[in-house]
């Protein structure tokens, strides 16, 4: 069973899709904690509703940004998990701290990386005039949405799209892709070789082990 800690900052719809996949038995996992840097995040309220440990970590305490990163890291280590799942988490993890985690850290991004990294991906895709955007699940490294790509799902951009419409169609795909990738991780099917990530076929899983 894949033990996850989910980092969030807002609405939490990806968290909900992961929890739904666990509840319907599609994902052999459990969420050990949901941690937010924003107290008012709807994702935290959802976690509480579901009886999941919900933790607010205040970035504005006196110890500054580095202090926050260190506190966050200690909390994550204390709780324990097989992986970290970033789901709409608004901070870039400080790599000086998080490189020591040693287990997979995943993120989902609403564009086909490496195009349109950053916080305004759907708006940037529309402004550029691409005909396809989509979503990407990738490993986190020290950069902004720059880690090795695990999976992508293209979404066509329609002539009448505005940011809201395109975002909604991409989000619907995010809700399928993220739980699916996590099932691959849970079944030990993901192999990483530098930047190249391969997903082993389902039947190559004989040993059952992860990693
Ligand atoms: C999603 O679009 C995700 O790709 C991006 O942030 C958004 C989070 O949405 N990283 P939600 O909080 O999961 O609803």
Walkthrough of the structure:
This protein has a 7-stranded mixed beta sheet with strand order 3-2-1-4-5-6-7. It has a two-stranded antiparallel sheet with strand order 8-9. The mean pLDDT is 95. Helix 1 (13-23) runs parallel beside helix 6 (163-186). By secondary structure, it is α/β, with parallel strands linked by helices. Strand 1, helix 1 (13-23) and strand 2 (29-36) form a beta-alpha-beta unit. Helix content is 34%, strand content 24%. Bound molecules: 5-O-phosphono-beta-D-ribofuranosylamine.
Provide key terms for this protein:
211 residues; 24% strand; two-stranded antiparallel ribbon; single chain; binds 5-O-phosphono-beta-D-ribofuranosylamine; alpha/beta; seven-stranded mixed sheet
Short recap of the structure:
The chain has 6 helices and 9 strands, in the order βαβαβαβαβαββαββ. It has helices at 13-23, 42-49, 64-79, 95-98, 121-128, 163-186, and strands at 2-8, 29-36, 54-56, 83-86, 105-109, 132-139, 149-156, 190-193, 196-199. It has a 7-stranded mixed beta sheet. Strands 8-9 form a two-stranded antiparallel sheet.
How many H/I helical runs? 6
Name the hetero compounds present.
5-O-phosphono-beta-D-ribofuranosylamine
The largest pleated sheet is described as: 7 strands, mixed
- Strand order within the widest sheet? 3-2-1-4-5-6-7
Number of strands: 9
- Could you tell me the strand content as a percent range? 15-25%
SSE series: EHEHEHEHEHEEHEE
Low-confidence stretches: none
Distance between the termini: 13 Å
The shape, in one word, is globular
Radius of gyration: 17 Å
Mean pLDDT: 95
Q: Roughly how much helix do the residues carry, as a percent range?
A: 25-40%
Structural class: alpha/beta
């Amino acid at each position: 069973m894949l033990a996850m800690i989910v980092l969030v900052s807002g609405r939490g719809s990806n968290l909900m899709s992961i929890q739904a996949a666990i509840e319907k038995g599609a994902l052999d996992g459990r969420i050990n904690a949901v941690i937010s840097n924003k107290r008012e995040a709807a994702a935290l309220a959802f976690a509480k509703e579901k009886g999941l440990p919900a933790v607010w970590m205040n970035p504005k305490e006196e110890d500054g940004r580095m202090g926050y990163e260190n506190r966050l890291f200690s909390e994550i280590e204390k709780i324990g998990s097989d992986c970290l799942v970033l789901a709409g988490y608004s901070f870039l993890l400080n790599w000086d701290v998080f490189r020591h985690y040693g287990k997979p850290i995943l993120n989902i991004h609403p564009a086909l990386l490496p195009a349109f990294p950053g916080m305004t991906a759907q708006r940037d895709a529309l402004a550029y005039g691409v005909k396809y955007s989509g979503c990407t699940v990738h490993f986190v490294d020290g950069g902004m949405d720059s880690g090795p790509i695990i999976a992508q799902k293209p979404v066509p951009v329609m002539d009448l799209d505005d940011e809201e419409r395109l975002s909604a169609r991409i989000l619907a795909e995010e809700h399928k892709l993220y739980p699916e990738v996590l099932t691959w991780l849970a079944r030990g099917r993901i192999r990483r070789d530098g930047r190249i990530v391969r997903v082993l076929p389902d039947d190559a899983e004989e040993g059952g082990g992860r990693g």
